[in-house]
Amino acid sequence: MADLSSRNPDWWRQAVVYQVYPRSFADADGDGLGDLRGVTQRLNHLATLGVDALWLSPFYPSELADGGYDVADPRDVDPRLGTLDDFDAMAAEAHRLGLKVVVDIVPNHTSHQHPWFQEALRAGPGSAARDRYVFRPGRGSHGELPPTDWQSVFGGSAWRRAPDGEWYLHLFAPEQPDLNWENEEVRADFRTTLRFWSDRGVDGFRVDVAHGLAKDLAEPLRDIGGIGATGEEALLRVAPGSHPYWDRDEVHEIYRDWRKIFDAYTPPRTAVAEAWVPDARRALYARPDELGQAFNFEYLQAPWDADELRQVITGSLATARTVGASATWVLSNHDVVRHASRLLLPPGTDENAWLLAGGRAPAVDPEAGLRRARAATLLMLALPGSAYVYQGEELGLPEVADLPIQVLQDPIWEQTGHVRKGRDGCRVPLPWTPDGPSYGFGPGAAWLPQPESFASRAVAAQAGAEGSTLEFYRTALRLRRKLLEGETLTWTPGAPAGVLDFARTGTWRCVTNLTERPVALPPGEVLLASTPLAEAGSLPPDTTVWLG
User: Fold this and answer.
1) Number of Cβ atoms within 10 Å of the Cβ of 498
2) CA 144: distance to chain centroid?
């Protein structure tokens, strides 16, 4: 079994990390918004679940132009969510329960409310304050055109004009101006941030937009033309490391500098990169002298198909192995449709169109979706490496696709001119009890409305209930701790078409039936199945089993 003790430097290699989206986890003060005291009060749920760490999405001061990823002060707590004392109390309680604490950091950009950016607007062109960001004069006879054709991830130009006529870069929302990482003051300030949270007991960091910090700012700035602005497809059209602002080779110098800070602590602080880059490039961020681990989104994006999943699993393990890292696996997070709904959508489904249709075109059978989600989860938990679990998936929560337009909070809705519905459906606050104005989320209503179906999926409704998804997760995580040994798997030769079958070190085995009909169950003691095995010797469709 992996040693996850407090001083083990390798605790992260096969950990299960639970993502907490603070505003939707638990509301202690009754204002409808989740907060840090609410997290603290519910930490026992995580300990009982059996995870190794919690990852806290941004809780910093923010106007929520991008769900908290527009940070006005990276070394403080949003007053609506609590105080630094509340954070310290939460971290202390987590550690008392044996849980590691990982926090999000956002180094690519700040909020436009950050004191630095406000100073830059006042200081004017050519100032030292403006050099912390990326300001440039516009093109055209009067500077009325953006400096380049660079595009925002959220749509439209990545440049916004300041009142004095200069333009500033924002690869995301206009309220998120990009920092200039060629500026030594920027680098020094983030070193301070890393030490600030590490000194408060944080065990690791999730690095937002890790592939975006370094940019080619040599004059004249170059257009991107037809290579595309966002996503991995843009990076596949240029020489590796040469895109003007994504995944440039120079970014790795920054993370090698950070590693010196991480390694100054005992045990060393960990980090995981959110880097939307092609497979081979992802390994660079996970090198031991950089961040150590990088998110593998291929598993999340893979369809429910045995051949494609096997290819993704094999490739991801090989990629991690090239640099001595462990692989990472994730099925849901705060930015994507929950996998209890997504995995049942036909291949090629336009998820935004599905959301705009309220989840009714096509309709998703919630029971069938949950069945497939449980099978995918048990498969994921059998894989070598770290698994990341998003809050509420242990309850089998589906995407709330039918949120009325008038309650949407995600700024994507407005920023895209009401074209993209956004990510609110996976951020609906958690149900803790079968009753109450917000199903136990808080004493009053929640900041996003919860569907009535949440009552039967609440923690209190599922705890101790045989066959519930919550008890299934608890059993799987408890078993996983006992079974873990080594970081390899061996594919079983001759597995039927549509079936994934592999053995892990320690003589246990995982078999998943991705077909539409039952298949023969291999010999062995059934340790756990994602759905009941009604017929002896048979593995039903959309079912995963662990065999000993």
Assistant:
1) 16
2) 38
CA atoms within 13 A on the CB side of 530: 30
The stretches of 184-230 forming alpha helices (DSSP H) are 184-199
What is the mean pLDDT of the segment spanning 144-169? 94
**Those residues with Cβ within 8 angstroms of residue 234's Cβ, 6 or more apart along the chain or in another chain:** 224, 227, 228, 243, 246
Length in residues, the chain: 548
CB 4 within 8 A of CB 484: no
The predicted-structure confidence for 413-463, as pLDDT tens digits, reads as follows 988 889 999 999 999 999 999 999 999 999 999 999 999 999 999 999 999
Task: Match 């009982």 to its residue by tokens.
Answer: 48
Q: Which amino acid is at 104?
A: D
**Helices (runs of H) and strands (runs of E) counted in the chain:** 18, 17
In contact, 71 and 60? CB cutoff 8 Å: yes
Which residue pairs from 495-499 have beta carbons closer than 8 angstroms and sit at least 24 positions apart in sequence?
496/520, 497/306, 498/306, 499/306, 499/539
- As a whole number of angstroms, the distance between CA 47 and CA 220 comes to 54
Q: 159 and 226 in contact (C-beta within 8 Å)?
A: no
pLDDT for 3: 46
| pTM score of the predicted model | 0.95
Amino acid at site 442:
G
- Cβ neighbours of residue 359 closer than 8 Å, sequence gap 6 or more: 341, 399, 401, 402
The secondary element (H helix, E strand) that includes residue 405 is none
Greater confidence, 357 or 411? 357
Residue entry with tokens 């004392």: 85
Q: If we measure between CA atoms, which residue out of 160, 171, 163, 75 comes closest to residue 114? A: 75
CA angle (89 as vertex; 85, 92 as ends), nearest 5:
135
The encoded tokens of residue 520 equal 């023969």
Report helix, strand or coil for 90: helix
